[in-house]
Specification:
alpha+beta, about 220 residues, 8-stranded antiparallel beta barrel, 8 strands, single chain
Amino acid sequence: MTLNSNGILAIWHDLDPSFVCDFREWHFREHMPERLSVPGFLLGCRYESVGPSPVIFNYYLTESPATLTSEPYLERLNKPSDWTTRMMPALRDVYRAAGRVTTTAGEGQGGAVATLRFSSREGCRQDLQAWLSENGLNQLLDQSGINRTHLWQADNSASAVETVESTARGGNAAVLDWTVAIEGVDPEYVQAAADWLQQQQPFVETLQGTPLVGAYRLVHRLGL
């Protein structure tokens, strides 16, 4: 799967357990089709956790990062449907990262994904990006069951934009600089690949703190 896209919106959150069934219906029947109707939105994917929280991970690919601050998209965020308005308070600890697809390696789409969210140490940003883009993502493809890898860079101003929807769910959390997403055939494989990455010295020595890691299975995909 290759798309002419370099914009990414990635969202992680927990969920009020009493809203699980309603959330699943809302997300694939209304929310994702609504987002894909915004000019510039190309693909949406929703995943559910196979481990600890956050229990939901979803992302959208867009034609460019500018799509994520465009007038049509912001208008949608500021005029939520009745169903969306009912659902927003059920989303807990929402982490929303809007930005750019820096590098992608591999082909296809896996049925599972592991995500690692992190920031770089002061003065190490370029070294971290260079190692992941030139070596790390490709070396991950050599791990068992891994078919595609990504490096996403967050834009703090785009991620933290205030809208009616963000206010309804309690605001936006602070965003880390980077996300590595590792796609593969099974949650066990993507988790193992995430563990491998965290043992690589060029990665570890440039990190600020410990990455936030989660493994997820694909539930729904809409778009190209």
